[in-house]
Amino acid sequence: MAIPEGIATVAVTGRYIRPDGTPLSGTVSFTPPARLTFPDADTISAGAATVALDADGAFFVSLIATDVPGMQPEDWTYTVTEKMGKAPERTYAIVLPSATPSVDLADIAPANPADGEYVLVTGPAGKDGSKIYSGTGAPATGTGVDGDYYVDTTSGAVTLYGPKAGGVWPSTGVVLGSGNLVTSVNTKTGAVTLTASDVGAVPIAGGTATGPVNIQPTSGNALTAFGSTDPATYFRVTAEGHPYSNSLRPTFYNIGIGDTLAPFGGGKFVLGLKNVLTVPTGTPGNGGILYAEGGALKFRGGNGTVTTIAPA
Description:
By secondary structure, this protein is mainly beta. About 0% of the residues lie in helices and about 30% in strands. Among the domains are: about 10-120, Immunoglobulin-like (Sandwich); about 130-180; about 255-310, no CATH class.
């Protein structure tokens, strides 16, 4: 009995011979899942289809395609079992898409076990995907095909149209943005890489900051650095960590070495020395040492002589 109308089929052929050309005898079985249900055709299929090789070792069989719409289950394969006289039995799986109405088993049966258990039959090419067109103004009727999109790139009114349907573009689109759209960064477009100079920043390695520079701690007063307009007048900290000034003007209001109990005695433009913790005993080799001891101001000269400059 023929397969009911509405159920797609695939014609499968094949031929088996020995290496000397002698036809083989035996059977080839095609076993689907236990039950196949076709609601649209009011049909249920069960069991295997087995065909015997003819005198030439050939066979022909029409089988239900493995991708019939609405069929349950979906995405299944046939199990092919080859039983030949005086030849090893073999089992493998195949799919039979309806887009290939006829196929020879030699074209889809695995020739090498390392290639996998079954060979897929390539179906027809799928439909082209949607394309996105762009231009200034609304899309022209002849632009694109059904399913495509179009971007109107008019400055200040960028708009998306689509999808195109029935050969017609929508009369209105979706406004993507206005003049506030970002089209560049610091005058750069495309894949933008910004350097420190692009954003007015100081490079990680070196660089010059202009204007007063403030370092503000969480609490307390800020540290502010001002530059001189005279290139010969400056204050700096040397590479060795020493403060240095060549300014002809007062560099500091007050300078303190250690902490006096009454900060600078309320004075201004003064030098404050805290009493030494350890009195210097060595002889300075290149100058002298000024220090306070017990409130007295003392100086140890280059030959080791200690002079009291002012009593406590």
